[in-house]
Amino acid sequence: MKHFRLLVLGNGISAYGSYLNMVALNVFVYDVTDSALAAGLFMAVRLAVSVAAGFVAGRLVSRYDRKRLIIFADLCQASALLALLLTPEAGRITLLYGLAVVTGSCATLSQVALRSSIPEIVGAEHRTRANSWLVTGRSFAMIAGFSSAGVLVAQLGYTAAFGLGVSTFLISASILAALPIRTRAAVGDGGEDPDGAARWSVRVLMATAPVLMAMIALRAVDGLGSSSHNVALPVYSDLLDPDHPATFISQFWATWAVGVIIAQQVLTRYTARGRRTLGERAFAISACVMSAAFIVVFSGLPTVPTLAVALVAGAADGVSEVVYVSRLQSVPDERRGRVFGLSASAENAGFGLGMLVSGSLLEAFSPLTVVASLHGLAIVLCLALLVVLVVRARGERPPEADPGAGAEAAPEPGLGPALGSGLETAPATGPDEEGTQPGTSRRGGGDAVREGQD
Question: Do 143 and 254 contact (CB within 8 A), yes or no?
């Protein structure tokens, strides 16, 4: 998978630029306007655009070449930052909100296009390992971007920080442009059918794949929980050590990242054995453990136990992310883009709403209360989904007295796998997982595309 390793590198570099800009731009807005309201409005515009862009991105990746869309998104972000650098200071305030629109929409488009392309790039049977690599790369990028942004701005200024951001997007686009990869299946081999994709909607998804829809809704609630610990962490760190509040934040995120990386190593080795992949129950369990761990982090334990729990939170977070993305990627290619677009909108909406709710609640309640409330809601929904999956699995189990009825349940129409089956693990290939018959492929010449990768 030589080519995919280069893609992971390019995506990690692009992600570093995104996280760097997230910090540098917010500080820049506040410095230029001298207004906390303006800085908050900048973040609100970016989040609102990200939510709306999910639906648009789903349509775009269903109709156009996904590789070109990712390159286009990187180049647009680089151009927007370069325009900010070249604009005189008097005109930068107006340009900032246009930059929020560009960065928010392009980041969502790039994410939806890449996630929906993975089965076609590496093959459906390798998608869990590929997703693990991407999550690991983005975890490193997040830590590097957040930790270096303040140093770069303080030591070298905004021009250097934004210039570095421009270079990261250009490098990412160049790497992807040079890679001989295919990001979608051919028509007639599971590829795009524009007329069929146009009929795909949230209502159809709710009617034909209720468990998948429940997973997407749960990710939105996870966004609420994630925003709560992100907003509460600076407040909690200040309570622990008013003189050095950044110490605990750095320790927390570094430990969390280590947990993510460890989990990805274990997950890739597990799924490589017997070519199996985790299913919906693993998603519900890992999401539940993640939320519980984040609550414990704010419970006032000594530093060492707290960091041990942060390690668990990172590991569960990483598993939940990979299992969720891999599950959505089992949807046939012609509908996968719409599903990932819906997912992106739901996740961004949950996170944005959570930022507002958490900020308001922290005015009256402790960090533990706020985090426990929002992550507690996620735990309740995780447990409810887990119960539904177990009950459905028992109901679909064939009677033992009739060994001749060993045929497996048919996939839900037009969705590939039997969504909502509740199986803990399932074969990574074959009709149950990918909706294809033995001996056929929806990757449309994927073996030729992946020549030289292994």
Answer: yes
